[in-house]
User: What shape does this take?
Amino acid sequence: MAEIVLDKVTKKYPDGALAVQEVDIEIADGEFIILVGPSGCGKSTTLNMIAGLEDITTGELRIGGERVNERAPKDRDIAMVFQSYALYPHMTVRENMAFPLRLAKVDNATVEKKVNDAADILDLGQHLDRKPSNLSGGQRQRVAMGRAIVRSPKAFLMDEPLSNLDAKLRVQMRTSVSRLQKQLGTTMVYVTHDQTEAMTLGDRVVVMRGGAVQQIGAPQYLYDHPANLFVAGFIGSPSMNFVPAGLENGLLRSPLGDIQLTDRIRRLVEAADAPSEVIVGIRPEHFEDSSLVEEHQRGGGHTFTSNVDVLESMGSDKFAYFTLSGEQATSAELAELAADSGTAEASGGGGVSLVTRIDAASTAKEGEQAEIWFNADKVQLFDPQSGRNLTYTED
Amino acid sequence: MAGIGGAETTAKKTRWGILNAVVVIYALFPVLWIVSLSFKSKDTLADGNFIPRSWTFDNYSEIFKTTEFVRALANSIGIALIATAVAVVFGTMAAYAIARLDFPGKSLLVGVSLLIAMFPQVSLVSPLFEIERSLGLFDTWPGLILPYITFALPLAIYTLSAFFREIPWELEKAAKMDGATPGQAFRRVIAPLAAPGVFTTAILVFIFCWNDFLFAISLTSTERSRTVPVALSFFTGSSQFEDPTGSIAAAAVVITIPIILFVLFFQRRIVAGLTSGAVKG
Assistant: This one.
């Protein structure tokens, strides 16, 4: 067990491509940290550099206070679980899990004991003498984890370990990974492109984009206080609504109507020296059917009326989709997010699309007008040029 | 419907069966003929019967009485095994490097080895003869082993690098993370998985060395290093007037046996799909 420190770690390939630039992360002992971002953001490269499978171009990597840049993977005492599991197909489950111990020349009795302990934790007891080809995906995944834990390494590295499992198993394994980490108390660095995994698993989440760290923080903090447009759009499902707006004297002119900024937001915006064109971000759950909003609350918000395109009832609440007239919000970061989620073409139809999450008691109907209220104090404003969150606060 | 389908497959099976039989008979007839010859006595040798009228083992016992054949057999086995072992060991290392590493001159190396494989061997016989004579390699085991390795290596490298490319790269990374040195990763993870490829290559190389006639006849002059295919061509009867057909037939049958044994022994080790279960589901 040990803390891992990345100090201005940069990876530059011989062809000049910059995969990771000046990443600073301090991972505390026993912490569960998630590297998340769209494909090609440098998260796996960062993980491979921690593992020692890729050389670090510049910067320093310290594990337990010691510089390990020049050490071979085997001398770093860290274990890794690969996306493809990478089990040794010619060995049984038992031999697979014992392999790191055999290499470390551990005596037979200890190997036997440690493998059995790991098998108990992962519920692999009855599969120990089978070959990986006879196991299901979930079992293989557990063997891969078993091979990592038998050695009691200083840290675990996980490279999208659940992405090859089907949806149901993934949710199940997600819980067991989390439980395992708590049980062992070992530092874990976990790479994923799935923001749900990032939100549910980690103590802290590192959001990466184009090789650079965007923001580091606890999942809830990133959700409530995104530093920029990219983090705001990446974290949360369904993702935040983005609406372009003009800003004049504390009044937002947007497709949602003219919104009066609350004093709190007005002060933040003034301090941030906001441009006259901004992007307004509102989370789906900050909307509500206005007939269900109590009278005394209504004043603190803004209402608009529009036609409900689609209404999805989830049981506990309803998702209502609207298309407002006006231009869609455009920025480099939003384009990248759309490309990553594959919605770039889907949302091409003119107008601003909006997702709202409203109470299940709402009587709104598909194809009919509905009056929707939202909390004006919950809106976040972003600079379309730099993507910076103009309403960002530390608390 | 099922009946029609059944009839169709029966007809199909019959057609394939006939076709297969034709091919097998066409391919094996000369072999059967030489087997038949080898069991005939000297008097009935030319009687034109496919199945011998009088069976005899004389031809076999006779060839094993001559040092000419026994010595050649020993030479053949020794030379082919050594050449195969060396070619497979070096081929494995070279193929691994070609499949896994990026080093300057890689494509040149692959190109040159392909060039060697395609080079007409007959054009190399005269220079090799001169070189080996001046180096004192003429008519020795190394004198044959070296050219065999030269021509077997490209074959080995090509076959093996295809096998190495099949092995997931991540297995090696996993081994490294598990604490293996590059050598340990190769010996304990990669080599066992490449085994089917190694055995296939060993068979191909062994057959190539075993069957070679051109180098063997040009680079040897005495029983010291003459291999069986050459020795066969030097067979004479026990007297000048005797026809050695029976002995040649028996020797020809005998030299196919090691090949069959070699293939059977290694074929069992060629297990398809050995890497299944390594990655994904």
The mean pLDDT of chain A is 90.
